[in-house]
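Quick start: read one record
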Amino acid sequence: MIHLLDTNVVAELTTRPRPAPAVVAWALSVPSPSLQLSVITIAEIEAGIERMPASERRTAFGLALMNIRSQYRGRIASVGEREALAYLALHRKLKSAGTSIDPPDALIAATALANDWTLVSRNTKHLARSGARLLNPWDYRG
């Protein structure tokens, strides 16, 4: 099973001084090759860093992003035609239901849907409308 990590999971594992024990335990229970990121997650992290004022914290987050890119080399999913079509279908489905999901989250969910992956996020209530298979590692009980 492939797990697509949402940005909040990546941030928890890489930038928190004391990450949630359940999230760490879950991540350690899953073989690394089955953990994937989306290019959208990389973009969200990059955008967050760019919004920070110049500081030691910004430098530390920049280094964390470099490490993430290195650690997940070969496991960063792009948005190709299949993912774009899944995004369009998701957008139409949500629009007809009178609801929405912000575009970055919808693109990440569409990537999971297009590839039949499990989306790993803390925002399961928000993402449930996508129809993607979801897992909340903060609920992990090992």
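The two ends are 17 Å apart (CA to CA).
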